[in-house]
């Protein structure tokens, strides 16, 4: 079906003849005329971003619909691309109107013709045999006009949205005109750091699918103005969100030249400035379970001759649920603590140091900031910021107020102002506030949990949940994890990322004490992940450094990486090979020794020789570091059973009259020469705090699988009293301490010990109101139990030492004496 194109002086444009397109509707043949205006030769429109034309519709009926296309040469074929739609809504009949079209989403190197099409899907507005006619005046090609660079900083504040109910196809995103998003006002329904949120109803009248976007959604909010992004420059989109279902963030826009040779767009919209036609960066965000969480998306716009004109989109998914955002900012600086995944243990009244990295996208340190503020649980702290030119980091000096309550996890919010732009870092469970230790505290050691991808189908996860309950009932000050947090993956990296983002975070959130892990071979090995190393997930998603240290009282804890990742056939090997680790460790240990700290080293692979662990890279160098620095206690995992090896330190001559020992279970078929006997706490006690010996302690698997003579799952429980380790043993799963009754000055508890092992002087801690206390078994009320108590400010910490047999259940009462 064709038509005619002629010059006409019947309808003129600014005194000049117009180009007249005319034809006739033929419904029986499938539609109206397709009118083609060929150019004398192919035109290169690569440097143009917009086509503007003046149109004079001349139809018998005032209602019409017309599609405008450009056709490009592609090899021997000519392909047609729709660049927009003109209708009676945006260009009234018999009136000159200028209409603009974005032409960037199409190939523009060899444009051969302009096409006007009366599409069959719009035939309901026409009659068979009806004459269709329109005139074109001036046609103009526009080069990109780049607006001045907008100041980067907080672009969206206190905005929220509720996703509409219409379902969207997977892998499509729905967008709408900004004017259709109705603001319903401020609400206290969901607040962020004491601020109200703005609730936005994003249910759309006519949602429009945009291909090429991989987030599934319907509700969205976008910046009200476009921003200019330089190609090749790295940006960071960050902020906070609270979502009952998964949602997403996205940056979309146009460069001056877009390479779409392998990607065809058919764009049938009028005002493209309100729509996404090119995705620069996007990220799906998991549900937060009713909590605010920080998100960040680093991206670099691809090379282009001109800057990108872009907008930021906050997206709610097609799943029913509410999504709220706050403090969303697009920055060119990164602002984060050095160890974002590790909680910071702080004591009220004591000064703490918090190191932050503030750098530009090229990694250059930012040496000047205008303001630095710090909050803990909405309480602003007095803070001093100091820049260390040697380390190139900022250090915050502050302290938690004496009257800060309660003890336990606390959230942090830090705000820095650079060149008028505010950047915010926020994290839940960042601080862990403890009472003053005064030389007395407890901690646990978790080993080889081997959690899998799908916890609802995994008995290991159920065992770990049981272990968490037991750990929480003992109220330790913190927990160490000596590696193999996760098990064998199914080889898909997206599943592995899901595990760190969802499964692991869910498990750890149940632990009522801070966790300090080190990597094991299953956390980092390519062999188990289809060839992709997972140290990225361990460091980036969980936020854990491969090696680090922290202090509690006069104890210095050092975690290091002994994995040798990614080498088939050596996936179980240990090694002291992580780049930069040895130099860092030597300096860290020297600093701790100069302060008189008792050092505890923890890592995954046991380094001693023998059939326990025959393969180790740079074993002697690691042992030499341990012995030269007189480390007395090393905590280990990997072999899934309790095992203790005590070695004489070759560099210490005095106090070395005790024998070396190998204690642990006897594997099936092994002779008694394999060991010096079973593990008995009384045998090990003389070696603690004796620099002439190093105690290597392996802990049984907490929830993985049993091997090499292991009889139970469990974790290690260590009590420090008056600056000395006085109790150290493993606790099997099934052990429980339950509070039956609690009131001021009184506690009634039930202790259940599974049928595995008996304990003597097992320490149980309770935080009570200040006072002097007495403890006894319910059936032996006249016989007091061994009790140690220490006043820690607003509380008295009561330690009850209990003898309990295997399979025994005991009820204990703790009473304040008059």
UniProtKB/TrEMBL annotation:
Pfam families: Metallophos (PF00149). GO terms for molecular function: hydrolase activity. Signal peptide: none annotated. Residues 442-641 form the Calcineurin-like phosphoesterase domain. PANTHER family: METALLOPHOSPHOESTERASE, CALCINEURIN SUPERFAMILY (PTHR43143), SERINE_THREONINE-PROTEIN PHOSPHATASE CPPED1 (PTHR43143:SF1). This is Calcineurin-like phosphoesterase domain-containing protein.
